[in-house]
Structures are given as C-alpha cells and as structure tokens.
C-alpha cells in the first residue's frame, strides 16, 4: 500500500481522525487570521486590512460555525452510537461531512479577499456537510431501542439549531437584514454550542471522574440539566427580543447550577489527574462566565441600560474559557485514548492548556478592571497571540496522530 493510500486509510478508520485534523488546521488558520487583523487594526504592525465584510462578524462565524463543529462532530460521531449501543457512523457519512465543511471553510476565507459570492458558496457547502451529519446522527437516534436517549436527543436538537443559525447567516449575507445575523449569533451560542457542551459535560465529566478517582460517587442530576438548558434557551430568547437587561433572571440560576456541579463532580479532587483536571477547569469557566453575564445584565437593568458594563468579557469567558478549553480537553482525551496510548496528559500539553487559561484572562480582564482598560488593545492582541501559539503547538503535537496507525496495533 503506497503512502498516500495508507494516510487515507488511517484518516478514514474512525470519525474523529479526519474531523479533528481539519479542526486543528482550521483553528490555526482562524487564529492566525484574527491576530493578523488585530495587529493591523490597532496599528501594532502594518495597517488595517480591508475585507469583504466586517471582520468581527467573520471572526464570530469562523469560531462558532467553522471551528468548534469539527471537534464536536468528531467527538459525537464517535460517542453518539456508544451512548445508545447503536450502529456506527459510516465512513462515507463522516468523510462527506468533513470534506464538505472543510471545502466550505476554505471558500469562506477566499471570499474574505475576493467577495461575498464566494463566501455564499462556502456557507452552502458547509450547510450541506452539516446536513449530512445531522441525518447520520438522527438515523442512529431513531433506529436504536436504547432506554436512555436523553443526552442524544438534546444533542440532536442543538445540531438542528446550529444548522438553522448558519442558514440565517447565509440569509443575512443575501439580504443585509440584521435580524438574521442576530439570530445566527444567538442561536450559535445559546441554542447550539452551550446546549451541546452542557450535555457532553453532564454525560462525560462524572463518568470520566468515576474511572480514575477512588470512592467517587457519580452525580448526574437530570433536573439540573433541564434547568440549565432552559436557562440557556431563555438567555438566547431574551437577547433576540431585545431585552438583555433581563437575562439575569436566567443567568444567575445557570451559574448556580454550574457552580454546584463543579463541587459535586469533585473539582478539587480532579487536580490529582491532569487529564481529568482540564475538563473540570473548563467546566468551572461556565459558572464564572454566567456570573459575569448576570452581573452585566443586572447592572444594565439597574442603570436603565445607559451603559453596557463588562463589555465582551462574559462572552469570551464563555467562548474561550468554557467552549474552547472543553473542546480541546475532550479532543485531547479522545485522541490519546483512541490512539492506543496511556490515558495520561503529558506535562507539555498541560502547560499548553494553562496557556489557554491565560489567554482567557488576558481577553476579559481589560473589560472588567477599569484601571487597565487603557491597555485593552495590547491585551486583546496578547490574548489572541497566546491562544494562537498554544493552539498551534497543540495541533503540531496531536495532528500527526490522526494519519498514523494506533500504537497498540488495534483498528480505529
């Protein structure tokens, strides 16, 4: 078998391989593009770049719909059938998803230089790949007789809302109607990413903890999961209705639930195993971010909306602190475990994870502490640069695993 065929054989051996590989490459590209834009915008190096659309909305799309989904699909294509003892996702399904979404992302980048028409083509390809993924997951969900399908059902609904959010972005580009962009933004965060990661956290963190911590009592209260999902949906709906000053009604309960689960799942005990600690630290950012959202909303309500305190700190605490850290923590665990390696996080990868946490702090602190607000532009660029460097090093370490055979000689 020639080298090219061997690489393709390994990439198609399991769903996470191709999708994680493209996610790793896309993460490097999107962070490189964003840092390049920031240093020009703030006059640190060069001058402001001209794109075919506002860079902030391109950045939002590339992160929400063009980065996280590769890792989420790769993870759930692997675990979704296992949750219900269902039929495995077929290679033609996960490879079609991967190739179409990867092609769409590349066209999106090209469209930033060449114009909106190419952007539109890229999003259509991504929607097609996403649609294939939803159909594949729904087929597993509907064809199995498992008694407990709760996590799978929530994930399926969230994926559908993610597809609708991306479609709304496409309609916004076609019509310039703000309502579609607003729906795309809110759906991507509150109806897609947060429900997915809440569900995965609820399912996997106590399970992983029970495997490595002695005398561990698994706590997995579904009532809290339903409440947290309702709060997430409520936040998104209030934003869509133009009432951000009232989101504290749902943000405080969500923060409280997350804080309780961090304690119940053994946050402090997790530090004895670094591969587990990365998941607990990531989840802890959820309570921090929701407390920031709640505080921001409450202050806005008390001040009659005269000023939006805390800026984008709550959003970045959620997106970088929780979403990005959890995705990378889960991806690291899946990659290590499914490559036949011992389930141990090496010191270098642990340091990279701590770098992700530092990037989160660099991004949110200027919006929280007025005394350093004058350094905001420098710290924003520093946050992006640290995250880019750490993620690039993570990708360089893990990406080669995806096109190589398992070290234990087993298939997959």
From TrEMBL:
Q: Which InterPro entries match?
A: NnrS
User: A Pfam family name for this chain?
Assistant: NnrS
Instruction: State which residue ranges cross the membrane.
Output: 18-36, 56-82, 94-112, 118-142, 154-175, 187-205, 217-240, 246-268, 275-302, 308-331, 343-365, 371-396
| Keyword set, alphabetical order | Membrane, Transmembrane, Transmembrane helix
Question: What is the name of the protein in this document?
Answer: Uncharacterized protein involved in response to NO
